[in-house]
Amino acid sequence: MVEELVTAGVAVGCAGAVYAMAAARVVKQYERGVVLRLGRLQSAVRGPGLTMIVPGVDRLRKVNMQIVTMPVPAQDGITRDNVTVRVDAVIYFKVVDASEAVVQVEDYRFAVSQMAQTSLRSIIGKSDLDDLLSNREKLNQGLELMIDSPAIGWGVQIDRVEIKDVSLPETMKRSMARQAEADRERRARVINADAELQASKKLAQAAHEMADEPAALQLRLLQTVVAVAAEKNSTLVLPFPVELLRFLERAQPAPAAAVLPESGAANSEGGAPDAPGASKTGQD
User: Fold this and answer.
1) Does the pLDDT value for residue 8 go beyond 50?
2) What global pTM score does this model have?
3) In the list 52, 54, 98, 101, which could disulfide-bond 32, CB 3.0-4.6 Å?
4) Which residues lie below 8 Å from residue 73, measured CB to CB, with a gap of 6+?
């Protein structure tokens, strides 16, 4: 009798251990457990740790609550200004409601991926090429709103959407390069013309100042000579200034030949004696 009781107790213990092993489930910290009992959703979501279910009756589905990084495959499209581009992106999302993610959609990852591809093609068709290249922040926000609207009903929240790369045809790249080169050349010409205008104004002012002070032109000439002679690798031809010739002409004394007739004329007018030859002729 005792042996039968012991045997029964061992059997019950083994059965209990098997049942406990079959019923025990471990939910990780970043997961939540959704229980379906005979196909019906249980309202209580199992938190992290050890949890028990009814074997054969309950079915536990674990849902990852971490942020998922999903690349969006590159999509070919035509922009609003009729340019063919190829755009790829990346999307960051997470599950906020485990029950909705299990019940409302068959595979929320696949659903988010397809919605992201569709929204990306739609954004390409509504945008210009310049917006895709320089105004990505606004496009990212619009793309996030387009994906997040249906994802709310799936228990999924879109954290961020980023456009990674925009691929252009080679012909468009060459056209953009020529446009950028022409724009830079235009800016360079405008800058050079502006510099010439400012220089001409300053030269005109300098010319007026030198016209009032002729010596300033000579000083400027000497400064130019000093600047050129500093290199010591060229032959310097120095022009002789006309102002210097005029200065020397005014400073030079009168010639002797021009002085003698003037003195003779003065003696004749003042009653001075004439030359010896002239006096003899008068006596005769």
Assistant:
1) yes
2) 0.60
3) 98
4) 88, 117
